[in-house]
Amino acid sequence: MMQFFRTLLGVKGERVGQQVVDALVELDPKSASVAQLRVMEADLDKAGQLLTRLRADFQRERKEAIEARQNYERRLAAAEHMSRQLDAQTDPAQKASLETSLSNLLTQLESLQEEVAVEEREADEAEALVAEAEAAYREKAKALTEAKSALSKAERDMQRAKIQEERERERANKAAEVAGLRQGTTSKLNVAVDAMTRRAEQAKINAEAARMKAQALTDMSNRTKDHMGDANIEAALKAVGSGGGTPAIGLQDRLARLTNKATDAAALPAPNPNLPWPNKQG
Question: Quick one: where's region Disordered (predicted)?
């Protein structure tokens, strides 16, 4: 049971770690790319170090295989030489000695044959490992080169996109400014026209109010002087019109009127002293 929980927590931890990595990558993709390149470079360095060790091992194994083969070939040649000597030897004691030596040499050759096979097999295996390591190293180097190229291309694309975005934003701002200037001019003109119209209307209203005030004051003055506001007098005046005034008097008429007034004055009786004030008639 405890092993189950440890495994479950491990899986959960891996998922949480992956989610954190994904969030960081989404937050700053450039830094994440640079970090990934560094990881790939470190991995390539490790692969290079491993390849170097494998090549050294291969060189050692190859040298040992070559030395084992050369030792075997030299001893085989010696055995063949002793065999020819044994065939040509007529002395029984020498022949017996050669036979003993040849038997020992053949025993060594039989042992060396297996040793040579092992050394050559190890050398072949080391060579195969070197080939695999070289292929892996080339793949990692290619992947790193492509990743760097892709990052450089992405940075160039992002830079071009940023420049294009700035150009489009500038173009949009200029278009907005032009539209704003046109709209602003029209708007300002409309505001000016509206203000002038309102002023003209207000002036008309003020003029009409002044006219009505003057008319009212004039009518009141006429009513005060002529008929004191009497409706009957006003109607009568309107009926007779303006022709009911006193006709013009000539010079002779005026002189005669004055003469008559003087005569009338002389004919008046003398004032009565008993009256309380002069010229008072009873």
Answer: 149-178, 262-282
